[in-house]
Specification:
The chain is built from 19 helices and 29 strands. The longest helix has 18 residues, at 389-406. By secondary structure, it is of the alpha+beta class. The radius of gyration is 27 Å and the shape is globular. It is 27% helix and 22% strand.
Amino acid sequence: MATNATPRESAGKATGEPKSNENNDRPQRKDKDPDLLLSQFTLGCLTVVNGSGPGAEIALAKCANKLDQKWTSVGDVLIWEGNPSCCLVPDYEKKVVTLGDVSVSPAEWVYDSKERFVVDGTNALFVPSEKPRTAVTLHPLRDNQNEKWWKFSDLDAMLDGAPPAQYPVPDTDITTYKQELARGLNNGFTSATKPLPYERDVATFPGIVPSSTPRVGRTLVLDLSVLGQIRDFRMTLPQDWQVTDLYAAAGDVVEIIIPDSLSVERASQIAVRVGAHVDFLKDTSTNVTQKHQWKRMPIVTETFELQPGVNKIRSQYGGHLIFMFTEGDNFKVEAEVKNVVESPYFRLGATTTAQWKKELEKETPYVILETDKVVVVIAASDAKNVTDPDSLMKRYDEVISMLNFAAGFDGTEIPPRGKYWLVNDIQITAGTAHAGFPAMFDRSYNDLGSGDTPYDWVTWHELGHNYQQKPYWENAYFVETTVNLFSLYIQDQLFGEDQLEQRDKYNKTADAVDAGLTYDDADVWQKLVFLMEIKYAFPETGWEMYRQLRKVTRALSEEDAEDLKNPGHHQKRLDHVYKNLSKSVGSDLIGTYKRWGITISQEAQGEIAALGLPKAPEDLSHRT
């Protein structure tokens, strides 16, 4: 029976027992404590995730202070504590790192002044940006955060005598930033049965729950009966998160009891996240450097693994309990939750306005509103201004439906399963809002509880990013341009307006193209004019041309899709759009492509010419 849940790891655990080492030729061990090596890009720990000897798989995992994450420096050789006969070595052929026999190939990793682990003077330990960001590779030196690392011992040493941090913190105070990371790690390593060693500024954010607020228990049904997606939709997809109206107060020990009869394998498909505010504010985050401060702690959420039996978890930050599921078996299971707080909660179609007013009497810093399509997380103080939650959430549903249609989903092709999450925060990593899962919105600019926000460009734009087919064609036409096809479609449907017309972009851009402006030199709005000129020139097709483009891209074979997204195939991506738009409108668009200076391959031109389509006019300017 489980007694304490451990922080969730992003990859599997090492297998096999640590091996003894009887080879006297390996470097002699120094009297030095093993260390954790943390990626500055993700704060994940360098971990042996599969195997326990030479050739073992190494990746990033959530730091849990476990043996499979501990390394000891002997000179510049990194010995793995799980099997001291093994050390970290490069695999140049696969461009990864693995374990090697220390007596045969003790690779030297120089931890340089730029906080990189460099091997042979040319390659560094590197964490690629592609999600889930758990891979560790070799990459030629480039001096960005993906290749920077911390030693936990260095961060931990900075805590000696340091007072608790209070926010805001100036962006120049890197010492406090590192101390805060160390406090968070140390608290996370501490058993739920022991007091937290370090105080955190929860009062500033996400907020505290009064000690007088009643703690309750609840039995929940965790629904894993449907998981994952039916296909590769080639876009950012909703994840399998199950919302609850239960809030874990910061520092409280919460019990989550899973039936002993549930297999370990099935239990491993379930994790619990405390809090939806997922942004990791780094010293390089745009909204930290531009605002010259951290408004809140760099990290304010935690995730925990669950096992059959009693799981005791504790969040140093507090937040809503969110159950996260990974693919595997399909099943439902009851979970008993103890020592939590009821949070205000609204469910469209189930919660009345009178019930909502009663819900707002509950005391948690953040509140959740939910529909069949979307989950919205807002501050409790903002929730008190939501007098018509039905209208608010119907608007969010309406926008999601419009995005689905603009992306080409209709009665013949259903959209991805799941709900998008929109979350208010007092400081996010970049911009006033950003896409992803969840989509994050800076509360000071975008109050998700306001009825105006679902009808605002920022919402259409950020959620539109999640529907983009970036590597397949949109990167070639500029991501910040093509996303606004979604925004313009929704603005058209809701208000019969076009921001480009309102800003006189069509006339000014047409004049600029007449004077020699090319697509490559155009700004984000001028590029959008190119795409919209085609839409206006063929009103009988209109928005359908872009819906069809997205449908065709989803329908590509795996081989063709991989060919399109090949980094070296920029021309193929340009051709892909030219060919599909020409087919949709029933005219060869090569003239307007030439007018804008966009090169189309002879092969693509020949393919369209073979269809016998009439040539569209070269000048498709939409002058108003």
